[in-house]
Amino acid sequence: MEPAQEPPARARPPPPPAVRPASAPAAPRLRSPAEAEGRGPEGLLRRSGSGYEGSTSWKAALEDTTTRLLLGAIAVLLFAILVVMSILASKGCIKCEAPCPEDWLLYGRKCYFFSEEPRDWNTGRQYCHGHEAALAVIQSQKELEFMFKFTRREPWIGLRRVGDEFHWVNGDPFDPDTFPISGPGECVFVEPTRLVSTECLMTRPWVCSKMAYT
C-alpha cells in the first residue's frame, strides 16, 4: 500500500499595498518687507538690465555694486583735490611751482616787483600789501645794484622818516653807514648811488619785495 501524498501548499495571497499618509502642504515662506518691495538680493537680480539673473549669484552682484560705489567715491575725492590745488595755484601758494609769482623777479631769496606806473608812496605801499609783500627793504649794495639792472626810474622803497630817524617798513632799523641818504623829505626813493628823501605825495614807480617760496 502506497503512502498517502500530502496535498500541494496553497500560494499565499500578496499583502495589500501600503497606504502612505497624505503629506501636509508646505507652509509658505514669509518674505521680508524689503523682498516684498523688490529691494532684496533676489529682487535686485530680477531687475531688468542687471545682467546677473540666471548667471551670477547675488553675492557677485553685491560685490560689483560695492566696487562701483568705491570707484565713484575715489573719483569724487580726486576731483575735489584738483579743484583745491587749482584754487591754491591761482593764489600763488603752491610750493612746488616757481618761487615767485608771475611778473616778479627772483634775486637771492626774495621776489621783486617793479611797477610801471608812477604813484605816491602810500599808494605803492598799499599795492605791495595787497600782494602779500612790502615796499622793498634794501639790505646790501649788491641788492641795490640788482634793482637798477631792471629800473632806471628811481623808485620808491620801504624807507620812511619817523621823527628824526628813518625806519624800514618791516621794522628793521636803518643804518646810515650802509647807504648815504640826503634830502629833507619823509619818504625815500633810490638813485644809483644813494638814497633820497622827498615828499610822500610825489609820484614815482615803486618796488615791492617778499620772501620767495621755498
UniProtKB/TrEMBL annotation:
<dbReference type="InterPro" id="IPR001304">
    <property type="entry name" value="C-type_lectin-like"/>
</dbReference>
<keyword id="KW-1133">Transmembrane helix</keyword>
<feature type="compositionally biased region" description="Low complexity">
    <location>
        <begin position="20"/>
        <end position="31"/>
    </location>
</feature>
<keyword id="KW-0472">Membrane</keyword>
<dbReference type="GO" id="GO:0016020">
    <property type="term" value="C:membrane"/>
</dbReference>
<keyword id="KW-0430">Lectin</keyword>
<dbReference type="GO" id="GO:0030246">
    <property type="term" value="F:carbohydrate binding"/>
</dbReference>
<keyword id="KW-0812">Transmembrane</keyword>
<feature type="domain" description="C-type lectin">
    <location>
        <begin position="107"/>
        <end position="209"/>
    </location>
</feature>
<dbReference type="Pfam" id="PF00059">
    <property type="entry name" value="Lectin_C"/>
</dbReference>
<feature type="region of interest" description="Disordered">
    <location>
        <begin position="1"/>
        <end position="56"/>
    </location>
</feature>
<dbReference type="InterPro" id="IPR016186">
    <property type="entry name" value="C-type_lectin-like/link_sf"/>
</dbReference>
<protein>
    <submittedName>
        <fullName>C-type lectin domain family 2 member L</fullName>
    </submittedName>
</protein>
<dbReference type="InterPro" id="IPR016187">
    <property type="entry name" value="CTDL_fold"/>
</dbReference>
<dbReference type="InterPro" id="IPR033992">
    <property type="entry name" value="NKR-like_CTLD"/>
</dbReference>
<feature type="compositionally biased region" description="Pro residues">
    <location>
        <begin position="10"/>
        <end position="19"/>
    </location>
</feature>
<feature type="transmembrane region" description="Helical">
    <location>
        <begin position="69"/>
        <end position="89"/>
    </location>
</feature>
